[in-house]
Amino acid sequence: MTSADTVAISGHPLEPLDADEVAAAAAILTASEVFVEGSRFVYVELAEPPKADVVAWVPAAPWDRQVAILLRNPKTRSTYEAVVSLTRGLVVSWRVAEGLQAPTTQAEFMVCEEIVRADPRWQAAMRRRGVSDFSLCMVDPWAAGHTGPEDDPALRRILRPLTFVRSSPRDNGYARPVEGLIAVVDLDTMEVIDVIDHGVVPLPPLGGNYEPDLLVEPGNVTGFTQLREPLRPIVITQPDGPSFTVTGHHVAWANWRLRIGFTPREGLVLHDVGYVDAGVTRPVLYRASVAEMYVPYGDPAPTHWNKNVFDMGEYGLGWLANSLTLGCDCLGEIFYFDGVVNDQDGEPTTIPNAICMHEEDASVGWKHTDFRTLRGEVRRNRRLVISFFATVGNYEYGFYWNLYLDGSIELEIKLTGVLSTGACELPSDPEYGTLIAPGLYAPNHEHYFSIRLDMRVDGDRNSVFEVDSCSAGPMGPANPHGNAWRTVRTAITSEAAGGRDGNPLNGRSWLITSADRTSRLGAPTAYKLEPGAYTAPLWVDGSQQSRRGGFATKQLWVTAYDPAQRYAAGDYVAQNVSGDGVSRYVEADRPLTDADVVLWYTAGAHHVVRPEDWPVMPVTRVGFHLKPFGFFDGNPMLDLPPEKPVCHTAGTGCSHCAEGLCTCH
User: What gap in Å lies between CA 414 and CA 383, rounded to an integer?
Assistant: First the structure.
């Protein structure tokens, strides 16, 4: 459409955009005749080439490096999508996303707090609660949800912020929520359009601090008066360096090969994951990423009933990523990848150390001792950990992809941070939450994560089977001793059957098989998806949550590959009345046998809050495990060499053994 100067192109089609490319793409777009003055840049990210082109690509082959850009214009109240070619220096496409809302930006986050604090109606409500120092008030920019026709995304762009009060600039404001006070902010006009006050509830009396110097102060909820004596240090060293090598964003570790990606919406992405077997890299996954997060609250109180936030679709995990710090977030020999995102002017913003990669000992990998000969063999497992953390308001979420020497892949999602709280009258026993301090409670809520797994098990043609362990039936000819059981496979042949429930009582799992390769035993090579924690949503039909949170209603969805279908709740989530995404993708009922398939796994954290979750929550974990099932001819760790036993204090024996008589090994 329009042209400008070209820029140097990165060395692989899936290499994430660097800062120069973000700036160049924004410059090409703003210089074009299609650009609408005053538009704010929401996301600038790599427009990934077609899968077939990437799979067929060879080093030094040319390709068209393209960038996808999402914008919001407050003057026209419009959302725009653009694609820019860095290779050709022009705008490839431009369209108006009619009646749709882009995610909230960082700039909007910050301005929202400022304009609410300045609003006379909000100030009057705070004075009714005895608060006059508004600089100590935290205004959290909660997504608006969809409460009625006035929230139509075509009409206005809104948030519904909630307020909390600090007692000092470093105080944990979530200890003193302002119950019943809700503002409505129009982000296009940057004005408070309404303040709703449901009545005064006293602020809770105790602090909830967790920083070392503050938690020991009088009046803090836990009552600690000093820090405990520290434990003796654990030092993790690799004298010869780590076992991985990194070229750009390509990683080689043990037999694993993969590429690291990063987007402002998804954060960490794994590309082109394969395992080197007998000198040949066999594909397992083409792309793996978190595709949505949904946190619906189960409290009908005025402040809390509308809390149902899609942290990815309404905000974005990538631009909320933490800059990780050695010794706290990661331990050992660390390699960091920066994350490059953008500000609202299209300028690049680099998040240093956004992704952490390191090796970890994973305990015993396999072991056996022959009790007759007393000969024993043991091998330790190890894992490559690739992780990032995102802070979404009060909560922190860590996403840890673990690749093991046994050929398995695990996603571990770690939830921590600070609870979203409410105030209650004293005394009180909240019906829909847990009392965590005097006058302070945390509502019941759930966390649902959708993980999109673009499978490529030994090629692009895969099938999916649901596998259940079943009794052979009552005692009789088929089960003469009453002990027999077998596994039963149910083929998922089309998308109409693609939404699947979990069933831990019969060990339900899902098998992804290859149509193009068989094992030496004659069966299709495969990977097995072992599910983790999940609870079905407790909302009822007709609720806002049921209309918008469709992906969370099944533990697994299976769809045919479509590059345009990347997000479990759809491309545009903010203020969407009825949701979109995978629960609608399956309505196409495309065939799934020997097809290019995508699995959408739902992990669920059912959070009935404990007092021990306050004032900062110990990590809780959810996730899943992908394991080879006939992918290899046997144990892929069999060829690991034995590790040489080494004492902690070589030559003098260990501190807990008699001198010179170490019996540790």
Answer: 17
Contact 515, 491 (CB under 8 A): no
DSSP assignment of 247-265? ETTEEEETTEEEEEEEETT
pLDDT of 519 over the 60 cut:
yes
**CB neighbours of residue 85 within 10 Å:** 20
Which phi and psi (to 5°) does residue 331 adopt? -130, 150
Phi, psi for residue 294 in degrees, rounded to 5: -135, 130
Q: β-pairing, 244-247 with 499-500?
A: unpaired
How large a percentage of the chain has pLDDT more than 90? Answer: 92
Alpha carbon distance 172, 65 (integer Å) = 45
The set of residues, in sequence order, having a beta carbon less than 8 Å from that of 313 and lying 6+ positions away, is 103, 265, 292, 567, 569, 570, 572, 573, 574
For the stretch 89-124, pLDDT in tens is: 999 999 999 999 999 999 999 999 999 999 999 999
Main-chain dihedrals φ then ψ at residue 428, nearest 5 degrees: -155, 145
- Catalytic residue numbers read 311, 395
DSSP summary character for residue 630: S
Mean pLDDT of 452-472: 98
CA separation for the pair 88, 462 (Å, rounded): 36
Peptide bond into 427 cis (omega under 30): yes
Q: What local confidence, expressed as pLDDT, does residue 478 receive?
A: 92
